[in-house]
Amino acid sequence: MNDTKVTGKELPYIGGALKLRLPFIHYRIEYQDFIQGAILSCIPLGITAAMVQVLDMPIEVAVLMVVINNFLYLLHTSFGDPSVAGWITAGIPLYITYLTDYPAGPERIMALVALQILVGLIFLVLGVSGIAKYVFMHFPISMRAGILLGAGFASLMRIFDPGQPFMGKMPIAFVIASLGSFFILFSIRAIHYRKVHGWFAWVASFGIAPGFVIGYIVGLVTGEIPPPKGIFDHFIIQMPFGEMLGTFSAIGVGMPSAGMWVAAISLAIVAYVLAFGDIVVLQAMIDNANDVRKDENVVFEVPRNHIITSIRNLFMGLFITYLPLCGPQWTGGQALVVNRFVNSTPKQEPSFWGGATSIFWGMSIAMLFHPIVQIIIPGKLIGFGLTLLIQGYLCVYIAFAMCKNNVQRGIAGIMGAALVSANYVKLWHSAFWSGPTLALIIGAILFFLLEFGHEEK
Predict the structure, then answer these.
(1) In this structure, are residues 435 and 418 in contact, taking their beta carbons and an 8 Å threshold?
(2) When you count CB atoms within 10 A of the terminal residue's CB, does the N or C end of the chain come out lower?
(3) Nearest to 308 by CA among 104, 19, 92
């Protein structure tokens, strides 16, 4: 495998615009990221409760949908897009509100079909036409930093909000898991220990897994985490494909009416605006990886990301209506993969693509086995909370690092605060006029008023 690695250049691939890379041929499976992914399999399963409640589907169908969606994430890293993909998470409350305006049953499923297909078409048109690339290339640094700050603040606010379960329900277990993970991932002393102690370098290569395991054990001892149940009820998860396709897809319930397509347009645009922020964060993280690891050039292209994201949404919209939709990036997972890559030597992790792909191989395969899922599920809040913390930390420091002067830092700070207002503000009772839209408008006004055409000395 290492023979294919060209120092300082892109990893070799097969094909043209969609750059096919295969495990064991172009890159090796990184077992550390594989294990991290298996542990974090509890996070995507967290959406099943909302899917059962909102879409009135059996839990077995919801779990099967999550597993299929997770395998589709591999389309990105297998075809040249360095995205550790995920949902369009920030819009989930908006999707639920939109869907509950329709009666439960086939009509509600058709409403979700309309929304998801429209989101897929928006990604497809903007990706193929090149509009997205043009907008992204000319997007101001101060506004990019503002989106990063907003994403970081939103993650950290959830962690330290007493009403959230992380500090509210398991303070001892979560604090211990967090301190252990942060020391391993970000401490200057830990970086020194990696160089002089082989055993510590090996432990640190597992990312948040050691912190998760310690926090999980502490939580079991303190009673903050319930012991796992039903571990040996099944070996492989149930797979009701017939019920899924017949009752919860466009194939089974039919295509939406004209009125449903029209009603979903505005929310589809909002979903894309939310996703655009994830793309900005993704570009910043890949740039950071390229700045640190000079041995490999990881190429991120907006059109490719858009096209693959559109394929996922169109497929899911037709065959597996998926409540959280398909987004361009899972920021927490991206942060884990990038962090391990930049803190490893070329010998420890030869290529970014090994880690980015292995995390989803581990996660997707683990979810097929009922005992693994049942053991990990009780610790899902620790895993989710750790990814939020790491996401917040990386987003904030990358945002500060990319700003070149105080004007950019000031614009970024105000825009980040406006973005966080998505949790509180919705003007004129419209989902469109929530935090993300306001942040983009405020950032654009400040950019043209304070920065455009001038350069601070």
Answers:
(1) yes
(2) C
(3) 19
Question: What pLDDT shows up at residue 2?
Answer: 39
pLDDT in tens, 329-361: 998 889 889 988 998 889 889 999 999 999 999
Looking at residue 1, what is its pLDDT?
38
Intervals of the chain under pLDDT 70: 1-8, 422-436, 454-457
Q: Count CB-CB contacts under 10 A for residue 224.
A: 19
pLDDT digits (tens, 9 = 90+) for 281-290: 899 899 999 9
Which distant-in-sequence residues (6+ apart) come within 8 Å of 451 by Cβ? 140, 142, 407, 408, 411
At residue 427, the pLDDT reads 58
Q: What is the DSSP string of 225-240?
A: SPPP--TTS-SB----
Convert 364-394 into a string of H (helix), E (strand) and C (coil). HHHCCEHHHHHHHHHHHHHHHHHHHHHHHHH
- 95 touches 69 (CB < 8 A): no
Rounded CA-CA distance 154/90 in Å is 10
Euclidean distance between CA atoms 98 and 95, whole angstroms = 5
Phi and psi torsions of 424, nearest 5°:
-130, -30
Cα separation of 46 and 327, whole Å? 17
What's the token pair of residue 334?
Answer: 């991206």
